[in-house]
Amino acid sequence: MPVYKAPVNDTLFVLNDVLGLERYGNLQGFADATPDMIEAIIGEAAKVAEEALFPINLSGDREGCTRNDDGTVLVPNGFKQAYDQYVQGGWIGLAVPEEFGGQGLPYTLHAAVGEYMSSANMSLMMYPGLTQGAIAAILVHGTDEQKATYLPNMVGGSWSGTMNLTEPHCGTDLGLLRTKAVPQDDGSYKISGQKIFISAGEHSMTDNIVHLVLARIEGAPEGTKGISLFIVPKFMVGDDGSLGARNGVSCGALEEKMGIHGNSTCVMNYDDATGYLIGAENKGLSAMFVMMNEARLGVGLQGLSIAETAYQNAVAYANERIQGRSLSGAKAPDRKADPIIVHPDIRRSLMTIKAFNEAGRAFVLWTALKSDIAHRSQDEAERQNADDLLGLATPILKGVLTDKGFDHAVMAQQVFGGHGYIEEWGMSQYVRDARIAMIYEGANGIQALDLVGRKLALNGGRAVMAMFKEIGDFCEENRGDEAMVLYTKGLKKGLNDLQASTMWFMQNAMAKPDNAGAGSTDYMHLFGLVTLGYMWAKMAKAAQTALAAGDPREEYLKTKLVTAKFYMERIMPETALRKVRIEAGADTMMELAAEAF
Ligand SMILES: Cc1cc2nc3c(=O)[nH]c(=O)nc-3n(C[C@H](O)[C@H](O)[C@H](O)COP(=O)(O)OP(=O)(O)OC[C@H]3O[C@@H](n4cnc5c(N)ncnc54)[C@H](O)[C@@H]3O)c2cc1C
Q1: What would you measure as the largest C-alpha separation in the chain, in angstroms?
Q2: 439 lines ligand 1 (CB under 6 A)
Q3: What is the pTM of this model?
């Protein structure tokens, strides 16, 4: 049976030693997050993940969701009880302002907790995950009345949320959207159309479902300029907050899909459903972007989460499975063969995943902290810098952590040999579940285009300059530190490749946009390699500082330094390959006619 243990020590190392969370006491909600409090919350989250969510992960995958003839949807056994336990722990509202029933704690803490929950049961966690995205959109764009009507029940978990963008003919290109909204005399709208692939669209775990739906108001302009966002509740809500008649929205079918079987992916039919405009008319995409940005960080986190669980299982298997002898002589001479963890090639896989996961965790928490600073700092310059870096980091985090999350789920499966292909071991589920994270919330190719086409040039390149400066300053500050040379040398080389590639785009992509499209995925990964390398350099510095101070976690900290070295030796050099590919440009790629493929 699969195993999972929340990496509590690692999270605390990043929060306390690397990011120094206690230094941010001036930010709203951070003063309450004392180190003791953080440790208690992280410990409790680990318990919920390991004891309530993880035990029903494999069974949820096998059982899946069922749609009854009346359109109701049943989730797998045990999901409702585990959801209730999650809700009762107040986890949905951890970082939501107290006035709406939340706890107002740092979003950074919410991200740390989110990793464990998704590692333990990604399908189940998507139900409250979508609610959290919808809460974020209503908080930013909702009227006071909408906030009062919907937020307390959503934060409390008795109502859930969804996001409805996709239609059969319209995925990435939302300008093609057809769902229509007809204004009514009372200020509401009648919404009609079909949405597909809607996660958590229908289920029996909450009393009401609050759908956030993109639709075009009659007479609105074609394309993305004519899209508005609507709140469409499954059950109508009375003035006193009570639930009334069923609205005209229903689940027409469940998608049969490759993974995340425990999450209901629904075809949603809107037949003159009553909807309420949220945000300004025709500005629906920017309102939905609040939800999408939150969701992109959540999906990036899913990539890391699955890679972590897959890794833990591969390590356990590599220690147990005996095959062959170590190349340097028997390591378990009393047994008929050595455990496969002695073989360098198995270690190559395990070290690669470990190095990515630990840096990925630091990257997620670093980004979440930027989000906290961007939303809670009183200092305008600090807030702008954090907001720039958050915007830049979002597509990289989503694209790189999910591409690598899937690669590493496969790599971990490979450690099991043929047993990894057999359902009973659980590795197949991780591979299947990890796959979707590369696709939804904007397929990863689109994340790469967002980075190259939008984020690089935004505000005259302010964000990318801020990132280069932050990394460059770190290298400069540690120039005189002999013990850091190993790490800063690799980081500087990667940064040079990244800066040269950025310059190449500036010189070669303006006049010829195909050059940007052709190099965008390599650029996103190049940026990811450097950012994760930066995280490793920061972690190496923190480990060395703690070791020098006589920290009792000696073995743990030395392990960090070895993993940092592995990253710099064997992963960081990939930046050179990415740069060569980017500089090859689009000519050869675009040369063949479509018929030649
Ligand atoms: C299990 C599951 C759950 C989902 N949950 C939700 C949900 O809750 N709500 C919701 O609204 N949607 C949801 N989706 C939909 C998902 O977000 C879309 O599938 C995704 O955005 C891609 O759209 P598409 O499938 O239409 O692909 P397309 O847009 O047709 O894209 C096909 C391919 O072409 C590439 N491509 C498209 N345009 C360009 C371009 N201009 N340049 C370069 N490459 C391009 C894409 O990267 C992709 O690889 C879900 C999907 C699945 C499978």
Answers
A1: 84
A2: yes
A3: 0.97
SS3 per-residue string spanning 179-239: CEEEECCCCCEEEEEEEEEEECCCCCCCCEEEEEEEEEECCCCCHHHHCEEEEEECEEECC
Active site residues: 441
d(CA 141, CA 443): 25
Angle at 526 between CA 522 and CA 527, to 5 degrees: 120
**Which tens digit of pLDDT belongs to each residue from 320-346?**
999 999 999 999 999 999 999 999 999
Q: d(Cα 490, Cα 475) in Å, to the nearest integer?
A: 10
Element (H, E) at 276: strand 265-278
d(CA 40, CA 12): 11
Q: Whole-angstrom Cα distance, residue 117 to residue 54?
A: 8
Report the separation in Å between the CA atom of 206 and the middle of ligand 1, taken as the mean of its atom positions.
Answer: 27
C-alpha of residue 437 to centroid of ligand 1, in Å: 11
pLDDT tens sequence across 456-500: 999 999 999 999 999 999 999 999 999 999 999 999 999 999 999
Minimal-distance CA residue to ligand 1 atom 50: 197
Q: Which atom of ligand 1 is nearest to the CA of 214?
A: 11
Cβ(254) – ligand 1 distance below 6 Å: no
